[in-house]
Amino acid sequence: MGRAATGFTICVLSLALGIAALVATGPGRTATPKDTLVVGQMAEPKSLDPATVTAANDFRILANLFEGLARFRPGSLEPAPALAERWEMSDDGRAYTFHLRPGVRFHDGTAFDAEAVRFNFARLLDPKHPNADAGPFPLAFFLAPVTAVEVVGPLTVRLKLDQPYAPLLAHLAYPIGYMVSPAAVKAEGKGFGRAPVGTGPFRFERWESGRQVALLRNEAYWGDQPPLARVAFRPIPDANARTSEMLAGGIDLMVEVPPDQLSSFRDPARFALHEAPAPHLWFLILNAAEGPLKDVRVRRAVNLAIDKRTIVENVLSNAATVPAGPISPAFGAAHDPTLEPYPHDPERARALIREASAEGATLTLLAAEGGSGMLEPLAMATAIQADLARVGLKAVIETFEWNAYLARVNGGLKGAAMAEMAWATNDPDTLPYLALRSEAAADKGGFNAGGFSDPELDRLIDAARKETDAEARAGLYRRIDRLVHDAAPWAFVASAKQTAVTAASVEGLTLEPSSLLELKGVSKR
User: Fold this and answer.
1) What is the pLDDT of residues 40-81, one digit of tens each?
2) Which residues contact 121 (CB under 8 A, 6 or more apart)?
3) 144 neighbors 445 (Cβ within 8 angstroms)
4) Residue 492 burial (CB < 10 Å; 0-12/13-18/19+)?
């Protein structure tokens, strides 16, 4: 073994011992090494294969290991070049030609090229592909309009679509569009999720279940080298334990800060508190197919009865805003800025309920005990129950463990009147398309659990996803925003801000609208 190789071995050994030591560190014992960033998360990832996961908790790690043909421009949800330097769309909107960045290699040393792009799409979209069994791939339907991938040249690849599909670039910038090493997938199969290989600024080192996922700086990265030598993502499910670790210096960065603990970090000498808007929506699905809420007057009454401002202030400690409709302001021109949230107006709500002869109706409200993006679901359900009682509606709360809850709600409300839900999305198409279209009914495999159906909304959604002119497309989504607000298939309750806290020694962190946590520009003093 040569000297260089020996030095590398020592370096890796020291790193391993260093990270192991900091994992063993308890509250108040020591700070983390200066070249290492330790991130405290709610849970350990389900997998590190970007095609197989759906949770923001997992995406935060993946965003540092992998890249897509596109990425989101900093501070926005506008797609920008990444592994593709540029692209052209055909005149009919049914083909995109991507020109790939030269000289890029996966962490295993294999080349990133047009054949690698073809492999990535094939394993997601062709169930007969030899490596399709590395799935399932729950978000592959985002790329379903891709009907063919043509290798035009070593660094040129063309995607053909069955119809114009405006959300394509946004999905290529999201984890479902991240490029994985074909060689590594072929070698690992389903084990790829525990041995990920991408092109990102950090590469995978190891995964210690229940303790940490450790990443190392990618010394062969095609872009600027990250200042950090290593990053460790630690799962700390208990919010109080995460807060204690952050206060004690055991972690450098804590994401999804519980609202009632934000005040613990308002000391600029020790911490920096980060807040940013995100396309998150917490809402009640209202049963528009049966029962009292089939009447739009009662759905509007529910929206008017809920004191959303008080919920945001008292239950969520102002870590959220009150939304007006389904399209977040984070989507820029696609959001209707003239749309106002339903005011808290119990008197008007009572009048609408009387008109609809729904006085005294009993409404079953399905609530989760917890879950990704669900904020404070039980406290919020209790507050909503009290608000509805004030206008003459009796809400009966039924609670479920998170996964049992998803199974109950995603199958359709079936006798229940309301159900809590939360989504964070990367394109204005996603939420209306998946959860409000007539064809997205729960019994057809979609997420329209409330059974809402409106032919004009269906037409607008279809037109918007085919519209490739950005201004015209934004105009269609503004009409969707207004239509859904007025039809009230949901009660729009809260839109959570992204929150994170860093130690004062950490510099360069920016929370992006995509909620993807990119650490390549982060450093420590």
Assistant:
1) 998 888 899 999 988 888 999 999 999 999 999 998 899 999
2) 143, 146, 149, 159
3) no
4) buried
